[in-house]
Design goal:
This protein is of the alpha/beta class. It has 15 helices and 15 strands.
């Protein structure tokens, strides 16, 4: 009897151990609220506004990014800068000097406080409010602009909370005005070429993509007005600057154009260098610094694809946007080196069993041949030459501005809509939610509220 009892105990222990080791099937994903679309509103997929012969622009924020915008926009056909705004009067005067140097009339100027933008948005001679302020003012200015009948273009990130994201979506839908985030990395020449190749099937089915913003900001922390960027990093977890890495690869996957981001998980390291940056700036010990030295976000899409996005601004690693496309038949990357890799069978080359790597890494000449064979329709020789001449991160900033104005002048849908803005910005607040709940999976809302599969694949609109 004693032996039998021991056997029963051993059997029970084995059952309990097996149960403990069995994977839990319960879905532990944190749910996120999708507010009901207000009555009378419709989605803004493919939104157009009446064509404009001349796009009259009001620029708010003339710091490092805004000053570049002032200069670039004077070279874009069909533009007129009618109003300028910055908290600092000297920045408005500087911008007036740029207009004068280009032989252009002076713009109305507004300055003095953080509410000065309202008078600019209320003007009758502004069609587009171009917003380049600190992050916390992006959404309030854009909302005010749309409420006053203006289209809004917002520097990155356009929104820093889920509340701001939904406010921008609802206001764009209700006012039927464009709300576009100025994601310049979507216009990098290499990324544009890889997008065209991916759409042509060169890499097979795209299964995984990666992006990043790894940029040591040590030389720049002191240049931000009122220390706003370091303050934001001190008080926020998650990827606070995700869009440079996410935007281009999201276009490759056709996010809300046949696929959508479904679930994300985020992790971060300890802050490490952050507290020291604050102490050096303020002269006081930093008791708390929330943003990790490095943050990684993993995303799974509705169609079973994966995305990896990294943020790192406080360690001395080389500048890196990563940009990787991993397909069933090929691979492309920009960092640390531009590289493409295809199966030898695609290139009609025989495999060599002595080689550890059976794939073919393309030479610079072979990559150029592919780019010529699969051109991006936007990259006409004339536009490429003009973009390189005007500049802005090698020309991609000018391409972004040119396409925005081109679409407005021709009454076409913009390359990036308010749902792109929402999807790319949500990594900050949703990543923080994941991190603060033990790196739990978090549901990514369908910001289109049911329309993510209506259009198949990303594309550019052109005038006929």
């Amino acid at each position: 009897m004693i032996i039998m009892k021991h056997k029963h105990l051993l059997l029970l222990a084995a059952v309990l151990l097996a149960a403990a080791c069995t994977p839990r099937t319960k879905d532990l994903t944190l749910q996120t609220k999708v507010p009901a679309r207000p009555a009378g509103q419709e989605n803004v997929l493919g939104l157009t506004v009446p064509a404009m012969d001349t796009v009259r622009i009001g620029i708010v924020g003339i710091g490092a990014r805004g000053s570049g915008a002032v200069s670039r926009l004077t070279y874009v056909p069909g533009t007129k800068i009618t109003a300028l705004c910055d908290v600092r009067p000297e920045r408005v005067e500087w911008a007036q000097g740029v207009l004068a140097s280009r032989g252009l009339p002076a713009a109305a100027g507004y300055s003095g406080d953080t509410e000065a933008f309202k008078a600019l948005c209320e003007r009758d001679d502004v069609d587009l409010v171009y917003i380049c302020t600190d992050w916390i003012h992006h959404t309030p200015i854009a909302l005010y602009a749309m409420e006053h009948g203006k289209n809004a273009a917002i520097e990155v990130p356009a929104a820093t909370s889920m509340e701001e994201i939904w406010d921008l979506i609802n206001t764009s839908e209700r006012t039927r005005k464009h709300c576009m985030m100025l994601e310049n990395c979507c216009y990098d020449f290499y990324e544009l070429s890889c997008l065209a190749m991916a759409q042509a099937g060169v890499f097979g089915e795209v299964l995984h993509v990666e992006g990043a913003y790894c940029h040591n900001l040590d030389p720049y922390w002191n240049e931000y007005w009122n220390n706003w960027r370091l303050d934001f990093n001190q008080t926020h977890r998650g990827d606070v600057y995700p869009t440079h890495g996410l935007g281009p690869v999201a276009q490759v996957l056709g996010i809300h154009r046949g696929d959508r981001m479904k679930t994300l998980v985020a992790m971060d390291t300890k802050p490490a260098n952050g507290p020291g940056r604050v102490e050096a700036k303020t002269g006081k010990p930093c008791e708390e610094f929330l943003n990790g030295a490095e943050t990684t976000t993993l995303i799974r899409t509705e169609n079973g694809k994966t995305i990896s996005i990294t943020h790192c601004t406080m360690t001395p690693r080389p500048y890196d946007r990563k940009y990787q496309i991993v397909g069933s038949e090929g691979y492309a990357a920009k960092y640390p080196v531009q590289q493409m890799c295809l199966r030898r069978s695609q290139l009609e080359q025989e495999a060599n069993e002595q080689l550890l790597d059976q794939e073919k890494i393309l030479s610079a000449e072979e990559m150029e041949t592919l780019r010529q064979k699969y051109p991006n329709p936007m990259l006409t020789p004339e536009l490429v030459e003009l973009a390189r001449t005007v500049g802005g991160h090698g020309g991609m900033d000018f391409l972004m501005d040119y396409r925005l104005i081109y679409c407005l002048r021709n009454g076409l849908p913009l390359d990036m809509d308010v749902y792109d803005l929402a999807e790319w910005c949500c990594l900050g607040p949703l990543g923080a939610l994941s991190i603060e709940n033990g790196n739990a999976p978090v549901e990514v809302p369908d910001f289109t509220r049911g329309a993510w599969n209506e259009k198949q694949g990303f594309s550019y609109a052109f005038a006929k």
